[in-house]
Amino acid sequence: xxxxxxxxxxxxxxxxxxxxxxxxxxxxxxxxxxxxxxxxxxxxxxxxxxxxxxxxxxxxxxxxxxxxxxxxxxxxxxxxxxxxxxxxxxxxxxxxxxxxxxxxxxxxxxxxxxxxxxxxxxxxxxxxxxxxxxxxxxxxxxxxxxxxxxxxxxxxxxxxxxxxxxxxxxxxxxxxxxxxxxxxxxxxxxxxxxxxxxxxxxxxxxxxxxxxxxxxxxxxxxxxxxxxxxxxxxxxxxxxxxxxxxxxxxxxxxxxxxxxxxxxxxxxxxxxxxxxxxxxxxx
Length: 283
Description:
alpha/beta; Rossmann fold; 19% strand; 34% helix
């Protein structure tokens, strides 16, 4: 049995996955009330699965009223953002406009929609035909709705998502090494801090999409030299990098943003909410 419609929390997490392993402990330490959903209702969460093709309001009645609703799963294409917001609001006191407007919506997305050469900021052009970008834009454009989108860099932690473990997968051959340019990351700890900061300073982020990184632009070649390893043919990955440097005339690492092809900055977001990343350069 889910919570009644009269139950209230400050933050509702729709989709308690990897991000919630960092977010929930932070909410608990700050004494911010919350509820979370999973598709199975495991570990004390509310059982909920978004079905964009269903008109059934019953799943939404199990969700508590919340000041901020965080959407962690991807919404895609036209209509899904509108349906999710509409069905949630239709199951509670939406007859009072002020109450509906007091709710805040945060959608998590990816910086992958920003592929401009050189520097990308949250005001840069992006792939507006991307299915996730379409849904994010729809959320931001909904009338009488306060919303923001956080486009996340590569998510990492110190265990299963340690970037050092990605090397064998992304650099199997010399051509793989040669093709690698920039990498942008954000630790789960700082994703959680950013979500809480957006929740608490919503007027400063409302109505916009934001980029979220740890404020570093990493050079894949530099990381490969730092971490080492071997290609599938047994070639030392450091030697492979040095050979690529020789061929293109790179004199030293890290390469410039121009040489890397793409650079992303999120400094505007951190300035807006008044906090800064706590996890520095990836080890």
